[in-house]
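B., you asked whether I could sanity-check this one before it goes into the benchmark set. Here's the sequence:
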Amino acid sequence: MKVVDTAIPGPKILEPRVFGDDRGFFMETWNEATFAEAGLNLSWVQDNHSHSQKGVLRGLHFQNPGPQGKLVRVASGAVFDVAVDLRQSSPHFGQWIGVELSAKNKKMLWVPEGFAHGFLTLTDDTDFLYKCTAPYAPECEHTLAWDDPSVAVEWPIVGLDPIISDKDAVGLALADVPAFD
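And here's what the prediction gave me:
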C-alpha cells in the first residue's frame, strides 16, 4: 500500500495494491499489520455505508467529545472528500485538504481525530464506506458549515445546487465550533 502525506499533517491518502484481470479485481482495504507499518495503529469500532445521488453534500461533521478517526473510500461512483483541521494547537487550524475518491481510482483517505469531515458526490449512485475509531454519539456531533468563508473549501459545485440536509444547512462557523485542543 502506498501512503501519501497531505499538505496538512495527519490526514493521509492511501493507495492500495490492486490485482486485476479479465474477471475483475481484488484489493485489500484493511490489514492491521500493513497499516501499523505505515504508522497507523488503529482500532475500529464501527463501519458505515452511505448511498447518495449526484450533488449530495454531507458534512462537515465531527464529534467533540468522542472524536472519530475515519478511514473512508468509495465502492461505486465518486466524491470530492474534505477534511478540515479543527485542532486549535495546530498551525493548520481551519485549513482543509480535499481529494477525489472514486471506485475507479480506489484511493482511500485517513481522516484522524480532530478533523471535520465531509464529501460531495460527483456521480449518481455513489456508495461511500467508512470505518470509525469511536462509535457514533449524536449528542456529541457537530457540523462545521460547509460554506464557511473563513475555511473556504473549494467544492467542485460549478453547475450544481448541492443537496444538503437540514442539519448541515445550519452548520456553525469555524469561530463557533467546539474545536479540539
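One thing to flag: Residues 151 and 162 are 18 Å apart (CA to CA). Otherwise nothing jumped out at me.
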